[in-house]
């Protein structure tokens, strides 16, 4: 889609301009520098020159370094305006550290006697959002520097640009401060939820309850009951196998019972009175998993069967829409369909998301387990919420990340044997019930606060758009008849561009070794 078509398709009004203004292609009022394709063999996580990549445009900082040779042309400094040219096409100012400009990121250097840098930074996101929304792509979207240069900016008189920026800074500074406070509150709520989970699995959440109540059953007694049931289930399963095969159970067949992995309590903190350490293996009746095969990359319709993706359990709730469609009827196994109440566990994902788990609630589709999503079948179904609490807590996350294998941040895996080793602090059933009630009430209160914050952030975004819409429609500040008309400014811009075009091309500075 051309820039003209993007402007025509825009529904926000942010790309409009006042009738007395002009339009000017961005390339006529700014220099556009594409980043260089630096050799990834010289990338480093701790030393060398900082390297600005696409993912760093919004943050203004980077965790990637480059130790190879480079050209000074590609150095960027504090306050440089950057655009990410892949994905969602973000723009932002670079931070404090001098860095190198990597490929697929471009630096925009306005000619400020013609166009205010701050004004450009405020108008660009509207164009980039419109281009992104109107750029079809089945994979990653790409933006070229040619397209960027063709963006026709609204061109007010230069003096009016200064007044617009001054007014915008006045209005947006208070708005941005409020947004910053709301986002800080969001972060505190995340920390609060983690502190609640920590208090639950350590017993602090139910400390007052323990002082006033004597548990009907201790954690140790509950564990003994679970282990008795665990063994009985195994024996019943074995006898069923013998019967199905027409065999008489051999002598001492019960001795083949796989005893659960015992917890290594070395250096573990002391548990509250009545609690005991167990492992997930103590609590498990079985672990069920699916298979991986070629599917159509879309969620199944109501009359079709799907296969779960890891994203179905990654974000706190079971999302059956995060699934693929099975086209091979021979691969359909009804025993692998997800059911309400299933405890689902992601055995493979990034380091932050490996071990993500949910209890399936909203189940309307026939979707099967994949090879990366495990179904944990507990001996005592009443312990599902407690296990979920543990695995989402700091204690559970640390164990998962420690036990997960793989040397790449992009994909880690925790096998079934390692999963069974995870330690579980186990109180009695009455205290588990009380902890769940307290946890649910407090988390629900935090959820209501977060909903309010999200609504306020949404309102702030709308207010920001309204302010920018007024600014780029020439309604934010009054026009001054003494200002040099935008038409004359545009003529001077074009004259200077013609002069620059006549100048010889500059030779890039020689390569230097990274410090």
Characterization of this structure:
A 5-stranded mixed β-sheet has the order 3-5-4-10-7, with no helix packed on it. A 4-stranded antiparallel β-sheet has the order 2-11-8-9. The protein has 13 helices and 25 strands. The chain is of the alpha+beta class and 515 residues long. The chain is 39% helix and 18% strand. Strand 22 (405-408) and strand 23 form a beta hairpin.
Please outline what is shown here.
This protein has 515 residues and is an alpha+beta fold. It has helices at 3-9, 26-29, 117-133, 145-150, 158-202, 207-212, 219-245, 280-283, 384-392, 394-403, 416-420, 429-472, 486-502; strands spanning 22-25, 30-34, 43-44, 49-52, 65-66, 69-71, 75-76, 81-84, 91-93, 99-101, 105-110, 152-155, 276-279, 284-289, 305-308, 323-325, 343-346, 348-349, 357-359, 366-368, 373-378, 405-408, 411-413, 423-426, 511-513. It has a 5-stranded mixed sheet with strand order 3-5-4-10-7, with no helix packed on it. The protein has a 4-stranded antiparallel sheet with strand order 2-11-8-9. Strands 14-21-17-19 form a 4-stranded antiparallel sheet.
């Amino acid at each position: 889609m051309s820039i003209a078509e993007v402007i025509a398709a825009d529904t926000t009004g942010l790309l409009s301009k006042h009738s007395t203004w002009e339009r000017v292609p961005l390339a006529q009022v700014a220099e556009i520098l594409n980043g260089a394709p630096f050799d990834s063999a010289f990338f480093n996580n701790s030393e060398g020159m900082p390297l600005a990549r696409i993912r760093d445009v919004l943050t203004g900082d980077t965790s990637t370094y480059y130790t190879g040779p480079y050209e000074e042309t590609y150095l960027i400094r504090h306050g440089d305006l950057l655009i990410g040219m892949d994905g969602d096409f973000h723009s932002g100012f670079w931070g404090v550290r001098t860095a190198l400009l990597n490929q697929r990121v471009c630096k925009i250097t306005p000619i400020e006697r013609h166009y205010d840098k701050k004004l450009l930074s405020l108008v660009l996101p509207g164009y980039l959002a419109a281009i992104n929304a109107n750029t079809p792509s089945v994979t990653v979207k790409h933006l070229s520097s040619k397209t960027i240069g063709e963006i026709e900016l609204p061109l007010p008189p230069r003096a009016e640009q200064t007044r617009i920026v001054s007014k915008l800074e006045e209005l947006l500074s208070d708005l941005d401060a409020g947004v910053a406070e709301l986002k800080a509150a969001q972060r505190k709520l995340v920390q609060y939820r983690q502190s609640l989970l920590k208090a639950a699995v350590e017993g602090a959440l139910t400390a007052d309850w323990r002082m006033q109540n004597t548990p009907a059953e201790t954690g140790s007694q509950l564990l003994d009951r679970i282990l008795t049931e665990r063994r009985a289930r195994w024996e019943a399963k074995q006898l069923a196998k013998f019967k199905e095969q027409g065999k008489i159970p051999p002598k001492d067949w019960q001795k083949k019972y796989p005893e659960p992995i015992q917890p290594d309590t070395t250096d573990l903190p002391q548990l509250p009175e009545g609690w005991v350490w167990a492992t997930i293996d103590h609590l498990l009746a079985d672990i069920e998993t699916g298979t991986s095969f070629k599917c159509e990359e879309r969620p199944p319709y109501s009359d079709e069967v799907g296969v779960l993706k890891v994203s179905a359990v990654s974000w706190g709730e079971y999302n059956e829409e995060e699934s693929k469609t099975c086209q091979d009827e021979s691969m359909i196994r009804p025993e692998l369909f997800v059911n309400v109440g299933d405890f689902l566990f992601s055995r493979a994902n990034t380091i932050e998301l490996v071990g993500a788990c949910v209890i399936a609630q909203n189940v309307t589709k026939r979707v099967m387990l994949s090879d990366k999503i495990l179904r944990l079948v507990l001996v005592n179904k009443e312990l599902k919420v407690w296990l979920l609490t543990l695995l989402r807590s700091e204690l559970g996350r640390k164990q998962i990340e420690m036990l997960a294998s793989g040397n790449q941040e992009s994909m880690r895996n925790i096998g079934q044997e390692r999963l069974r080793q995870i330690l579980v602090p186990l109180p009695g059933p009455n205290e588990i019930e009380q902890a769940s009630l307290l946890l649910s009430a407090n988390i629900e209160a935090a959820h209501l606060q977060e909903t309010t914050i999200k609504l306020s952030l949404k309102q702030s975004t709308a207010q920001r758009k309204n302010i920018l819409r007024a600014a780029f429609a020439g309604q934010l500040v009054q026009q001054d008849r003494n200002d040099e008309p935008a038409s004359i400014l545009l003529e001077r811009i074009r004259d200077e561009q013609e002069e620059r075009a006549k100048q010889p091309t500059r030779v890039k500075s020689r390569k230097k070794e990274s410090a």
